Amino acid sequence: MTATASRVLVLNSGSSSLKYQLLDMQTESINGSPAGTRLAVGLVERIGEETSRLAHTPLATGGAKRETEGPIADHKAALKAVATELSADGLGLDSPELAAIGHRVVHGGLKFSAPTVIDDEVLTEIERLVPVAPLHNPANITGIRTARALRPDLPQVAVFDTAFHTTMPEYAARYAIDVETADAHRIRRYGFHGTSHAYVSRKTAELLGKAPEDINVIVLHLGNGASASAVAGGRCVDTSMGLTPLEGLVMGTRSGDIDPAVTFHLKRVAGMSEDEVDVLLNKKSGLVGLCGDNDMREIRRRIDEGDTQAKLAFDIYIHRLKKYIGAYSAVLGRVDAVAFTAGVGENAAPVRAAAIDGLEEMGMAVDASLNAVRGDEPRLISPEYARVAVAVVPTDEELEIAQQTYALVNA
User: Fold this and answer.
1) How far apart are CA 410 and CA 406, in angstroms?
2) Residue among 10, 9, 80 at smallest CA distance from 47
3) For residues 171 and 169, what is the distance between their CA atoms, to the nearest angstrom?
4) Cβ pair 303, 324 in contact under 8 A
């Protein structure tokens, strides 16, 4: 890395998409860590289709969003198209100011508990984890291979969704099944959304004017995918997602917690195949299975119109949230803050109000006027008298990946 290299390109490769952000890490936040200035953001979607679309916004120049449509055959072509867009703004991948490329990798197993410079051995281990992350790791691997081919001289860093949760004690991470079977097939709770939980728990401490090691936080990452974590002194001690992102909270299309015997029942009684059960629980359950919608705004609109099915779906969603808030309060022993984040957590005031309603004896309350305020900055929504701070903390997974990548290559 050259002395002037301060830019990090963050890549998040999906099966048919490529999200990216280019950040300059020279600026510092109030706690001394790189705050990151976004120079460009974009998305390539429908890769491999005739109607592929690239949306690129050059923030550094203040230019308008540029959109192009046309066939983009694969991730290699997608990244080349991104490079062309960046070059048009003077931000090309061949710039000496580019310090590294940071990749979001969903599953790192137990081996990767920190951001890691990618070499052949690391890539092989990520491939070995495909069986426990078949929907995500293959796409992440494709993005890594493509970026390494384009810039083989540049440090490529993997930042793992699971890494933040590797601090869980064994009694929280283990399932109560035969140990030999579990170990042979790497069955345990890994957790996901780790970059978000790490970022939000740290920003919550900053909001309260305290060091992360001095507070206990329950983080509620509520998007189409949703997860909760119990963070004690900056370290995750429990999380709701498990071997896969299916376990835990009610989500947009995923069931969350369910009796495992339901799967056997569906195979025996309904004659469903393993693949059909998989699709049911991952894509046709959760809010969409309960009421046909997985958009919380639409669900709230239907509730306001008297739709009882939408109301039931909302109540089930909130009930599961309350159970996890209560459970993690017991796990932590002392709770200093509850932080809502991600699309629903940041924008759905009725969800926040309903999740905390009735928890006054636990020291939690929401101020209706504060909760109604919308904004992009971390903020408290609890009244001054509340013993536990309730906060809305916008997540920034791309910045977290950039920060971890930049810190590693600098070290």
Assistant:
1) 6
2) 80
3) 5
4) no
Residue 177 near residue 122 (C-beta atoms within 8 A): no
Nearest to 237 by CA among 318, 341, 158, 333: 333
List, for residues 159-171, the tens digit of each pLDDT value.
Answer: 999 999 999 999 9
pLDDT over 70 for what percent of the chain? 97
Residue 28 pairs in a beta bridge with 34
Q: Name 406's Cβ contacts closer than 8 Å, sequence gap at least 6.
A: 6, 8, 25, 34, 99, 100
Task: For tokens 């081919």, name the residue.
Answer: 149
CA distance 344 to 86: 31
pTM: 0.91
* Catalytic residue annotation: 161
Q: Are 239 and 229 in contact (CB under 8 A)?
A: yes
Helix (H/G/I), strand (E/B), else coil: 355: helix
Other CB atoms within 10 A of residue 318 CB? 18
139-148, 202-211, 348-357: range with lowest mean pLDDT: 139-148
When the pLDDT of each residue in the chain is averaged and rounded to a whole number, the result is 92
